[in-house]
Predict the 3D structure of the following.
Amino acid sequence: MSNEVNEIDNKYSQILSRLENYKVSHPTIYKLWKEYLRLQHEQMNKIMNDCNNAMNSMETVGDCDINTIRLLYYIMRLEQST
């Protein structure tokens, strides 16, 4: 997984670097893509941290069935919508 993460980070850096070439000629599109990429990169980092935390929990907590996971997901969605 570490190689995949490095590849993602390298690709992200390469794209941002290339995007800089359009900062003056296409400022609106540049800003849009730069912000979108930043948000997606932050989201991916959050997802990977959440997965890592879940794996740490899996070392001490047993597995649960799919219905429990569905219920927890629905509860989380309800909390986010209020």
Summary: The helical segments are 2-19, 27-58, 66-81. The first helix runs from residue 2 to 19. The chain has one domain: 2-81. The mean pLDDT is 92.
